[in-house]
Amino acid sequence: MLARDLMQRNVKTVSPDATVREVAEILAQEDYTGLPVVDEEGRLVGIVTEADLLVRAKTLKLPTVFPFLGGVIFLESPRKFEEQLRKATGTKVSEIMTRDVVTVTEDTPLHELAAIMVEKKVKRLPVVDGGRLVGIVTRDDLIRAIHLQGQNGGVS
After folding, report:
1. Contact 95, 56 (CB under 8 A)
2. Which residues fall within 8 angstroms of residue 84, CB to CB, at 6 or more apart?
3. Would you say residue 156 lies in a domain?
4. What are 115-124's pLDDT values in tens digits?
5. Is residue 83 part of a domain?
């Protein structure tokens, strides 16, 4: 079994100019953990994951509050946090994406896909042809394929 046999062909992507807010919305709504980033010609230029968003979010400093009579008193202005949040969510994907993406081709065998995912500690492998994104293989796709192969008498 090859990547072409198990890859998802209709891949949700984002452009490098998309904002962190847009990516977060897609990840939350679609239950994805990452998205390939492609240019206007469909060439893979990066990948953006929940981890990239979390790294960005950890720089936010929540305002300090003090509980008082069933409410809270802000010890500093929440406006500073609001501005930081506005800046963070308006950041372009190109500023936070991983550019050095591990990719495979449609001819990559199942056992190599599994080995690459384990060795490189990645959850998804974009499938490219001449630099253009043609599909994606996720860990879930691999597990399903291995299960199917097991039912049919072996893993290739």
Report:
1. no
2. 59, 60, 61
3. no
4. 999 999 999 9
5. yes
